[in-house]
């Protein structure tokens, strides 16, 4: 082997970096367009972060952030010794896990089903119908469930009048996880399919024709073309879902907390609300909120790392 | 038209929305920061500054007030609107000063600088800039104003938000001390203010000084009562006044519940029934020792009874599922026949809503009873007023006097010329008399809101439901029948500021949650007992009791 180096083209080399001045001039209009969004993000998402300091204080709204007593880690000490807090953590993780198993695959399946419907009229109709519940508030969604499945609802009215006994799904703590998952499916599955439908539309139809010509059946095409085409999006959604594992919803649990009891329905967000804000114990609520944020950050970072390890894009291309 | 009275139903709604008991500033909490706070003062010193009480006799009600014990008085009732509208203020109270005023409003905000405001400014002789703000978010806008020390000249701070708005920390610092102007005989300069009962002024007092100007003061303030469907009871021949014990009520549950037809006897009633079992409102003094409600046997007995009521299937399933928002709908629709709530529910608007669902609708109130049927029936009194306005500490003495003169105009008694102007506007422009009832015109509906000026100052409450005399008669006769049952709870009408740790324990969220689950039939009484035990030790309950004993009971007594 000779050591003479021929001028081998460097495939990894990027075009020469332009100076920031040139790039600024080139991207000027794009930057201007993102500016409002960036300002919005700064003002509403980053500036309020300074409020996190209250988690380390005995925050007094009258004295304000600057003059409240410094408490160090007292709030966290109290938090970690509070059985109600750990109960909320447990509920959050459990509900999150159940929803991951039961809810996550539903929009994908629904998107695949819808995609296989040929008549555009039927498809649009079905899509509109499954979309609709997303625009209902949780109050309304739960009222509908209560009217249908509650102790005085349609189902139990029927059962009672036929002397079959009653079955109050809405106040049963044991089946609460299933109940909230089905509520989420009813309300959000239709909305969730949008992103998958978009990914499906991006798959080159030539692939299907070629595969069909080669004699691949429906299932083989699904397995070898559709699912690999969706994989990137599925992984992205999974990363986001895992990062949000500690955010299972707020209103849904707030509204149904009295129905099944706090030991079943309290999640981290309702815990912060009831034991922080509602009792004026702001610092305690802030400490619980900060704990949740830190864990969420770790989760999303970990999930993203994992996605990269599997060769997927995750949240961003490495 | 129930302009003047709609406030009652909203008060009820607002209080339940705020998640607090409608008992006024019994205990109000604030954080433990460095700011100076006022609290309870010495009883003797406070007595010395409380304003003199000079009742107004110029307008005779159709149903006169009946006195119970000290500070207890039923509300007067009016069946017709007085035709002879007496003027109680001579001349124009103001001297041309300019003031801003912020009040909460549960309803549509009237247009700024409208004809009604202009007419009021003319009548008052001041430029009073009214800035009503949405009542539903009021508790969130006030802390931003107080944090930046930019309160308006005149502000309404409802007492159920005392702790959230930190009124104990604001009085003297941002809110003006009115003691020099109103104490003792000084108030006689403002005869309509002098006609407001003393207990209401006490509600606005912090640390031996007067700060708040009360609206709608009443000598009959209670948390609420049990309501029943008068029309349904009549039709079935059930006599409501024969309910004299908890057993009677339980039997009624069996008789009235017909689940197959979607009818249940009860909605949630625990909050208004536990004191019937002899439990204290919150505190009790046993042989000189301060005892918290959670520590009493009677409290557990009440819970046990409510738990059995739910288990027996006499409570509507939606109520057990925590859906309180539709409680009225269930009651109007006859899905529940016995419910509970504040006295604010008993008014014209309620009667109209009920009649829309069922033309026979008639609300009745169960008499106060004792659970065992033998003890003396008792219901605990609340503070003398819950709507309280304050003046800014930066106002000069002559400005404060001008505002108090304006308050005197606004506090004119029911049916007077000034009252008519404040509540209904200008005759011919904002209202016309139809069958003896002041009826709003289109302009009146848009511009005149009962929750603007009367929230700065108003006369003692009177019962009037034009066009629905039966409501006025039912309500006033219920008050008269039960006036003897009213007793003052421990720490009655005292404004107490406590450090954050005690305030958190006082809210007792974990116990309150367990209580709710228990009367909804989901937790056993023993589980509530466990929650109380952990509240006492790790939840700060014992420290709260100690603190309250040392700082309130030992220093200021029971206030009874």
From TrEMBL, chain A:
Its main location: membrane. It is a multi-pass membrane protein. Gene3D superfamilies: MetI-like. The chain crosses the membrane at residues 30-56, 93-117, 129-149, 189-210, 282-301. The keyword Transport applies. Residues 89-303 form the ABC transmembrane type-1 domain. Keywords: Cell membrane, Membrane, Transmembrane, Transmembrane helix, Transport. The keyword Ribonucleoprotein does not apply. PROSITE patterns: ABC_TM1. It comes from the Bacteria. It is found in: Cell membrane. PANTHER family: BLL4140 PROTEIN. Belongs to the binding-protein-dependent transport system permease family. This is ABC transporter permease subunit.
UniProtKB/TrEMBL annotation, chain B:
The lineage of its organism: Bacteria, Bacillati, Actinomycetota, Actinomycetes, Pseudonocardiales. It comes from the Bacteria. This is Aldouronate transport system substrate-binding protein. Belongs to the bacterial solute-binding protein 1 family.
